[in-house]
Amino acid sequence: MCSMLCMQIIGILLFTEMVDRGNNYEYIRPGLSILRTQDGPTCLFNAIGYTTDLAWPGVWIDADSYADDYESQLLVPVGYDWSPRAITALELFKNRGVKAICKDGNEIRVRIAGYKCHAPMIHERVFHMIESGANLMGTFAVRPKEFANLGDRIYELDTPFQPNERPASHIVTFVGHGKKNGRPYLVFLNTHGSEFGTLGLGRVYFDQVFQDPREEHKGFRFISVIAGAHPTQAAKRRRRHTTRTQEEQRRKTPY
């Protein structure tokens, strides 16, 4: 009871910081990245790629190479792995890095600073994070055929999955939010190219996004990716540090 009351109070405080846009509106953050088109079951790697595309302009994560690295680490194809996929992929990105292509065509290997799996949140909190520039991902259940023909509709499962129906899930990066007749929804960058939804943007009702409270299922929550410094800026700092260190060493070395 106390935790629910606290969440409601936080929601009220956050909501007062934001513009009251009424029961029918839509907000989309500026500076969106180039749309991605996934090849096979690689929505996770493209969704993570979107978070760093937004944080690191001019650096493009190679999602196919990322998926290959993931499969090499687990020794099984994507779709046959039993690990918490999102967590495993993010740990790989953080600890080993993944291939990226810079706008000048050079290939580099980059790492993220970290990530955070959030405990269940109310929609006001999530809306506030998006407007504050958080690179936020989330997962929801889909029926591929009805989802592929989304158009400008806001997605939700029409009926629950049947016992003989295998659930499918889709992970995306959220870049906006809105309300339709007072019901909150999220706007996401999809990984099926510009033909999907409205010029590549999709929408899903907030209550459809997984927020599993169990710690062992924390990959099925909202996850924010902490990209860290822009890789090219970090490389320049490393070069300056190396040059300065070499110069100091040269001065200390007797002739």
UniProtKB/TrEMBL annotation:
Positions of region (Disordered): 231-255
Keywords on record: Signal
Organism per entry: Triticum aestivum (Wheat)
InterPro entries reported in the protein's UniProt record: Papain-like_cys_pep_sf
Domain of life the protein comes from: Eukaryota
Lineage summary: Eukaryota, Viridiplantae, Streptophyta, Embryophyta, Tracheophyta
Sequence ranges of Basic and acidic residues compositional bias: 244-255
Official protein name in the record: Peptidase C1A papain C-terminal domain-containing protein
Gene: LOC123073554
First and last residue of the signal peptide: 1-21
